[in-house]
Task: structure prediction
Amino acid sequence: MKTTTNKKNDLSSGQSYSVRIGNQLLRQLSISRLKEIQEVIDAMLAPKQNSIYCQTVKKEKDQIHFDKIRIRYADHNCFHILYSMDTHDGYLQCTSSRQMRKIALSILTFLNLIEREESDKPEAYSLVYSSAPQNEVLFPVDIQTDPSRDNNFLEETPAICQQIHWSEEAVQPKITYRLTVDDQALDLSSIPQLLQFRQKLVELLDKNNI
Result:
């Protein structure tokens, strides 16, 4: 969810910076924006004793509906069976009870693999899978002064989204991050890449006594 601010863009009051990782580029970031980005990264990776409570997007009271449909066509000599599940957030359609059971078991497996967030003291599972895949290439992080200023970017409060992806073939979930700021987005492939980005921010902010 994007959050915009009404204050005047502060690019005109100081130096702006660009961030490049691989072929991705964030432009016209003020020093105060870079500080906010570093703070939101620290909050995402904070140990559990410093974690703020987690709030689920939807209420747990949302009902779940299941359907089994049998279809007989005039030109077929068999029945066709279709299973489906309907929730407030989406619709899932399966072709057989075996497929439905496979999905149910996969959901349980996934929930058992990750640390639970919906508790009074959520775990900071960001650091559980801290190693990068062996074949992963960590692109260098380059932060430079940005000479171009057109002041056309929408002001958007920095936010970082963590996605935990798992499939049946995977040994462990893969964690990726997406940073959004001032109507721009930056994808980070792993925790090591995120930490590398954070270190560059810290070095620049220390240099500027921020």
About this structure: The radius of gyration is 23 Å.
